[in-house]
Amino acid sequence: MGWIYLLGAGLLEIGWAIGLKYTQGFTRPMPTVLTVASMVFSLGLLGLALKTLPLGTAYAIWTGIGTVGTVILGILLFGEAATAFRLACVGLILAGIVGLKLATPA
Prior knowledge:
The chain crosses the membrane at residues 33-50, 57-78, 84-103. By secondary structure, this protein is mainly α.
């Protein structure tokens, strides 16, 4: 169950990272409320995941999911650069996430 919590936490991290862009410096009420709620639920799920998963692994995967998802959505939603080097670096982060999952028992 810890891995499911961790996946949810990572997806919510993507949500709040992207949400920060839409808050426009926390001046827009609805995006701000949704972003803060996503932050709270993301941390809550991470906390639940830490009951059964090693701290270093869970934290690295949580931030990795957030990083990869945010970069991809930044490209798709905001027209950020999608250079080969940038995408290769995202691939390395993704490989690290998969490697940590494979290296962690349970």
